[in-house]
Structures are given as structure tokens and as C-alpha cells.
Specification:
Elements (H helix, E strand, L loop, with lengths): L16 H4 L12 E2 L11 H7 L2 E2 L2 E2 L11 H6 L12 H5 L9 E6 L5 E4 H7 L3 E8 L4 E11 H7 L8 E6 L17 E5 H4 L5 E6 L2 E2 L9 E3 L12 E7 L6 H5 L23 E4 L6 E2 L7 H4 L13
Parallel strand pairs: 3-6, 4-13, 7-14
Antiparallel strand pairs: 1-2, 4-5, 6-7, 7-10, 8-9, 8-13, 10-11, 10-12, 14-15
Length: about 325
Amino acid sequence: MRILRPSDILPSEITPRALFEDRRRFLLGAGATLAAGAAMWAGLPSEARAAAAKLGPLARSPFSSDEPQTPYKAVTTYNNYYEFGTDKEDPAANAGKLTVRPWTVRVEGLAGKARTFDIDDLLKLAPLEERIYRLRCVEAWSMVIPWVGFPLSALLRQVDPQGSAKYVEFVTHYDPKIMLRRPVLDWPYTEGLRIDEAMHPLTLLTLGLYGEVLPNQNGAPVRVVVPWKYGFKSAKSIVAIRLVDKEPRTAWNKSAPSEYGFYSNVNPNVDHPRWSQATERRIGEFRKRPTLMFNGYAEQVANLYQGMDLRKSF
């Protein structure tokens, strides 16, 4: 299946981080193996842990973009992970406190075979792929990231979803001893998808990036990546996945329902109430580029929304 790419892509010319880092607080005012072994996951600084814990072997994916990739340093130091702070550099500075082993993910709800998966179960559940995806933040910046994982559908099929399961809810880890206590959002952070979105082959259960285990600040040890939606839909540090029959309430939608809809598909024709979504700044580039419908994945996912008014179902 062909992945669409922008017509104006230029070779990546990465600039010093100080030139592109934007410290605005957008909403505060409103079969795999680990080469280094399990012991490297906990108790080390995140950069050392990531450098030691390689993932492999990795299959190439036909879903990958061939666009220039955002450098590892930018991907791991310019983050939104509000549990560890609301400035972009806060997660890299603070998320090292998070212990990612042992770690389990409960898959529960309307499932015939609900069960709990250890992180090692997940690493062995399906062949790992490298998926080079565009990431579009709702704040109008973007990256291109080589994620590592496998389709979320492979996990969901393990638990035999019932016919009454219409949605999938993601519940993330929250520990007030090491995470932000201010009520920026209703903790723990939750997100959700329709079940057909969750089962779509582009939806990735993600265990790494750049061939290594996920750094803590990027959602270790397991997250989901939904590349045609704004980045906040891709829940980090997941501890539970629930199959439910009703649309789940999600963190940003509860906080500002007029600004953050349940679907939150990338759509250049529907502006955020406080800024335009027509263009974006790719991290490492000076000029803005046009934002693509569904973040450039319209060929693969537009059929999911046939007959829907995407201005109302935003």
C-alpha cells in the first residue's frame, strides 16, 4: 500500500535546538529480543538505558514513509508528556524516575479471553516492524519518527473482542509520587478509538523508536501510535486497554470539549479555536509546510469516515 508524501519535501537541514524550541504553554492557561537484557530497563538514566537496549530483528514495513527522519535528539528532547511537566524539555529531564520493569498491560472489558500481558509477552507476541511515520502535533508542529512495534490488532485478536465492543479505551500509568500533581488534566490520562480505528493496520502498538526501546519521555515501555490523528491521541505508558460499548471520555476532551474532539483526525480545514491547522512547522525546518488531510494517510483511512461531517465530528 502506497504512503502519500508531501510534494514540497526538502532534505532535512537540522538547526540548533535553541532556534526551533517553542516554550509556549498551549493549554496550561486554558519474536523480539533485547540485546542488553532486562536489567538495563530500570534504574539507569533514560539515555543510557535506551543506548543499551536494542530491539530486533526488525522487519521493514510497506507503511513507512521515505521522508527525512527527525534526529533522535530532537525526538527525545522535545516532548509533550504532561505528567512529567508542561515545558517541552521537562519530560526528558524528569521521566527517568519512571520504572518500566516490571510492567504489565491489562486487556479487559468486552473480551472473551481477557488477560494481562507482561512486557516480555508483548515483545514476543508478533514480529516487530520499523514504521517510519509522520507525527503531527495539535500545536502545529511535526516530526518524522521511526517507531518500532506491531499492529495493535494483533494484540486485540488475542483476547477475542465481543461483538458488542465498539470502542477501545487506553488507560495510562499515573504515579503522583513521581508525576505532576497539579490538575492540568484529569489523571490518569485516558484516550480512545473506535474499534475499527484500533484494528486498522496503521495503528501501531509501539515498543521502541530508532531501533531501541522507548525512552521514558516518549512513553516507555509501551504506547500506541495512530499516525493520522493528532499526537495526543497516541497514549503513552499504557497499563490497561479496555474494550467497551460506549464512546469513552478522553483526557483532553474532558478538559476542553470544544477544542479537542473524540476523533481528532489531522484536518487542515478545521482550525483549532485559537490557531490555524492549515500549516505546520517540521522540527528542524524554518519554513512552514501545508498540513495534509489525515496527516498524509488519506488513501489508507479516509474510508473509515465516509458519510461523516468532519467539521462536527472533529
